[in-house]
Amino acid sequence: MTNTDRHTACQGVVPPFLLQRIADQPSRPSARLSTAADGARRTLQIDSEMRSRRDSSSPRRTAIVPGAGTLTRTISDAEGKQELPGKTVRSEGDPDTGDLATDESYVGLGDTFTFYKDVYDWSSLDNKGLPLDATVHYGQDYDNAFWDGSRMVFGDGDGEVFTRFTVSVGVIAHELTHGFTQFTSRLEYVGQSGALNESMSDVFGAMVEQYAKKQTAAEASWLVGEGLFLPAVQGRALRSMLEPGTAYDDDVLGKDPQPADMAGYVETTEDNGGVHINSGIPNRVFAVAAQALGGSSWERAGRVWFDTLTSGTLSPTVDFAGFSSATLATASSLFGTESDVHRAIASAWSTVGVDPMDAADRKT
To answer: What are the residue numbers of the active site?
Structure first.
């Protein structure tokens, strides 16, 4: 795998294995999903082409210091084409346009910026006030949303399986967090570090959504992509952080394949070593720890995850055991080794079969 592949800048929220399931369905008027299969095939092709056009240079880490900067958003419309950025349709301070995708993306970018700034005193994604740009109405029946290294890109969905991808604030924050990871820990997008990369986007996406909705950890659904599936699909969301493997069970999409612990860890060469499948394991750790601690997820569990990612000491190739060690060290530093925070995080890692004692002496 090349350096470009490991530092990929184009990660879609919908995993390729799910798109492939849809693409493998027959495209005929009598089929349950008459147009979704074609949309999924086009999406897989577009995603493959986008990955092949990635910038081969690896982004540098930024200085890890409190930043300044004001929120600056620009929304563009691709008008169903695959050309970026598209026509500018809304800039910072402009009123609602009446176009749902445009206005939802504008709000989602703002919610994400506000979360990082107000909760962690972090300015935008790079801590230097990076302007947040997005393109909506990308492609025809495009079934994904992605961060391309400099902007957000949203499809409108196929109208049978997926609705527009701006409908979920959590999805918007998930993809923007790939940018945050790009500028901080730079977790390599392969194997366990890649699953951690995906998990960080789910974790912070969930926290942004909870912050925007003023939800506690107990009140939150812990679902990733809730609202994306249309009524014909038997499923709640793309992923469940609290209960991996239960998000959907559909005759076309199949059953959610995410394992809930290391006993079910999937060894595969697909999807960069199963980054979307195995991310369920660290996802569950965070959700379990946050619920055990109570209150708002971002206050204690989230603080540990944020400080770990921005410490400047985390290896881009860190595995689950190494990340476990890093989060426990951060919890000890912030709250003390005998704290309820440290105990909750240690217990959560044990729950998924990653032994914190084994991880304690590992170099992260």
So the answer is: 175, 276
